[in-house]
Design a protein that fits this description.
heterodimer, A: 95 residues, mainly alpha, globular, B: 157 residues, alpha+beta, 6-stranded antiparallel beta sheet, 3 helices, 24% helix
């Protein structure tokens, strides 16, 4: 994970949800630890999509969690989220 | 405007999927029970209905952008400004621009003008999901036909 990705995401979360920046760590779970609900996460997704020029596949992730094919930790622990952002950015660059 | 049915849009004037914009007309009725209460002697189109009109305008844009496969639902209203009174009988010209087409959501910037004068605006977030009930989709298709939804736009790339 590029540290700049985490910094960007953490800053977005801090500003969007009014959460103290120091409380946001790579191991934070956006839902369970930071208390971010689905509506606030839309704001975060909007800001992340704009900042990185990507489209977070939230519908696909939600479906996978609902179907038991993935856990929320895989997508919403911030270090994992950032790794997926890096992957989407790399895929866009390779396209 | 079928104000009591919350169907506020009368006519799609322009839909530009390349520019990701829409413009519609909405005629505020001369009479409605709403104006009897809001307010006696000083009838005004409620601000929440102006916001709803902007949301519905944004919604038709999202429906077009998703080729009538998804239904938008209003989720957030930001930076809403109601700049002047709207009274019975006025014609609203409402525009919306799709700022972002996210996964399961969309963000638009919408505005209303009356006789060329900026009247209100807002940034709106809509949840976008498959139609939850076939009756809703059927009803939306009926409304689409009534307001001149350009079906040919759905064939667009």
């Amino acid at each position: 994970m590029m540290s700049s990705t985490f910094d960007t995401v953490a800053n977005i979360i801090a500003e969007t949800c009014d959460i103290p920046r120091e409380k946001i760590t790579p191991d934070s779970h956006a839902i369970d630890d930071l208390g971010i609900d689905s509506l606030d996460f839309l704001d975060i997704a909007f800001a992340i999509d704009k900042a990185f020029g990507i489209k977070l596949p939230l519908e696909q992730w939600t479906q996978e969690v609902n179907d038991g094919k993935a856990t929320t930790e895989q997508y919403f622990v911030l270090k994992n989220l950032c790794a997926r952002i890096d992957g989407l950015v790399a895929a866009k660059g390779a396209a | 405007m079928r104000i009591e049915y919350f169907q506020l849009i009368d006519h799609i004037v322009d839909l530009d999927l390349d520019g990701r914009t829409i413009r519609v007309d909405a005629q505020v009725p001369q009479e409605s029970t709403i104006f009897e209460g809001h307010f006696p002697g000083h009838p005004l189109m409620p601000g929440v209905l102006l916001i709803e009109a902007m949301a519905q305008t944004s919604g038709w844009l999202v429906i077009a952008a998703t080729k009538f496969e998804r239904m938008p639902f209003l989720a957030a209203v930001k930076e809403a400004k109601l700049r002047s009174f709207v009274i019975p009988g006025q014609l609203l010209s409402i525009t919306a621009k799709l700022l972002h087409d996210g996964s399961g959501f969309a963000v638009t910037k919408a505005s209303v003008t009356v006789a060329g004068k900026a009247t209100c605006e807002a940034e709106l977030t809509l949840r976008v999901m498959p139609f939850p009930d076939p009756r809703l989709r059927a009803n939306m298709e009926e409304v689409a036909a009534r307001i001149g939804f350009p079906k040919e736009a759905l064939a667009h790339g």
